[in-house]
Design a protein that fits this description.
The complex is a heterodimer of chains A (538) and B (283). Chain A is an all-alpha fold. Chain A contains 16 helices and no strands. Chain B has eight helices and no strands.
Amino acid sequence: MSAVASEHEHTDDHHDHGPAKGWMRWIVTTNHKDIGSMYLIFALIMFFVGGTMALIIRAELFEPGMQFVEPQFFNSMTTMHALVMVFGAVMPAFVGFANWMIPMMIGAPDMALPRMNNMSFWMLVAGILMLASTLFMEGGAPASGWTLYPPLVLQTGDALPFAVFSVHLLGISSIMGAINIIATILNMRAPKMSLMQMPLFVWTWLITGFLLIAIMPVFAGAVTMLLTDRFFETSFFDAAGGGDPVLYQHIFWFFGHPEVYVMILPTFGIASTIIPVFARKPLFGYSSMVYATASIAFLSFIVWAHHMFTVGMPISGELFFMYATMIIAVPTGVKIFNWTATMWKGAMTFEAPMLFSIAFVVLFTLGGFTGLMMSIAPVDFQYHDTYFIVAHFHYTLVPASVFILMAGGYFWIPKWTGKMYDERLARLHFWLSAISVNILFFPQHFLGLAGMPRRIPDYATQFSDWNMVSSIGAFIFGFSQLMFVYIVIKTIKGKDCADATDEVWEDAAKHGLEWTLPSPVPYHTFATPPEKIPTEHF
Amino acid sequence: MSTNNEYYIPHKATWPIVGTGGLMIMLAGFANYLNGSSIGSGMMMLGLSIFIVMLGGWFTLQATESEAGMYNKGVGISYRMGMMWFIFSEIMFFAVFFGTLWYTRNLSVPWLADEITGSTLWPNFEDVWPTNGPGNRGGDYEPMGAFGLPLLNTLLLLSSGVTCTWAHHGLLEKNRDQLIKGLAATVGLGFLFVACQALEYHEAYVDMGLTLGSGIYGSTFFMLTGFHGLHVCIGAIILSVVLFRSWKGHFTPENHFAFEAAAWYWHFVDVVWLGLFIFVYLM
């Protein structure tokens, strides 16, 4: 009997093909699909947490004068909104897509380092919990803006060390995630897939992973110096001791500029994956897309001081950072033209993922142009720290990164669940989002050009009208996003939803390995590498 | 290029959540401690203990699996890539503090003493290095020279790099005696380095008036050498684990990722020290 039992256990161990039972499955899982789902769900929750903070900001700014919150709390909201959206929503969402899709796109059985994959997710949760805990502390959450500039941030109450350590935890999480993604891409590809045959989402994540490993330790070092300046008597950012607060800004933006590209490069990758499928054409200029991505990543390391034009810099510094910044428009333009050329004379259809992607191309271009305006140093003197910059980076993050996250969600959820989402509702979600996002952010250009400073709870009355319009847009946009949650839950439940075919989208299997798998996709895929890889693009 | 045939995919990892919990409790405890809360130090110790248990458990698991032959060549490549990129992230971490040193010495201290700022705010402040700033932060101090303990420490670390490579040759040539002796010497030299640095810090604080609070010079000096010392400790602990495993008979000339990772890490710590010796002590 005992021999039989042990043999049974033995076989059981080797046929561990399904998920573990019970809630512990999610705590101890090493499966890239489970971890990808956890990242995506976590990011979606944080999207609404950060969004609630944004609505508090917009409610306060609906009219001039103080309405709902204290100025200190208002500043905490602008700070926490940014930190939660960057580190809790957008970055984890892209890591979630990477976890789900990269192994399936390159024909790998899982991520290269599955245990570390689990740890990077839980480190993220720990970091965000620690960050969120500062909201309830003596002296309030950090209220210095997400850049955490000294000396202002050193006046934070009990929250300061918690904020610093949350950055450390989030950094560890990002570095582990990035190492895992790079090792997976370089070491786990199907033998027949060369580097220049990888889907662009894989390429953009390879480069993004490199950026993350290079910059997260820099941010960790910067906040460590904040901690020692506050608690251990160092003088890094204190002129009386020979230090310099501007040094913090240099270090922060050496991290910060590549960081914003961490949020946009995977966006480019997903857009380059979706547009060819719905244009029914191969991607135009595949190799130029790869080189453009690499160029943008390289340039991101030598433009940081364009965030600091007004802080005081030698004129040679102003000029260098101005021209280097303008050069970024070249590889970015290559991408915009390539997407347009991909759609040119294509047999296009306009399902929700494609609608979001087209809106991304148009509205990201707008955000890019305002960036080009501000790259001109003397012009930036006028715009610096006004609502113009707020409008600029929200155009590059909301109708670009967030729209593409929505597009990716609609694009791949039929593959994940085996069910088609409700196309009618998804298109409604798109139109509500696309219209309201412009009502929300476009007037902020006017406010900024007219001189309204950012990060203030009250303003002069001449700014009233456009602020009111912007706030109305914000509430429409915010509540429209609940539709996404409804559509996703409906698709996962699967009642009243059509079954998805294996290919999901017409002829999609030409465009990527993930569409050659069954829908819903099995728990383990590509235990053996695929024999053939799609060659449509190359 | 691909190696995913029979790639080992582990299931049900319990150590990651334990380690995350431990680290989070430790850091929350440290933050509470800094805020003057009485539960802070207790939380720190608890978190640290959990973290150490996790390290022990996870290392044991990996060693057992490795010795059971569960890792093929592909897994080994993934581990090596992981270690290389981890070391790259550490290089970037040290780059921040080297960059800070460069910035203050070449830009911000001269600006503080130039004709615009200096003559209006601090007419007596001069652009010299070392400095504790126009505010004379931390009071008078004596800068740390290069040719006492620091030079000795340079020799110690460089020799430990040699013994580490000697041990590696022993491993490759199946000379287990040489492997164990070489590793033991490396670990010994590493801890000797840490002891010398402790002595150096003691001298600085007690006899020379040089502290973390001695303006930008004290800040950069202790931050750079302190983080390096911490990394020497981590490296020496990793090497001790590898020494213990060698003594237990682990590793073959073909399969010894843990040894390689520890050696890479040790050489990285070594190179950082050379940078420190040149830019912090000599120049």
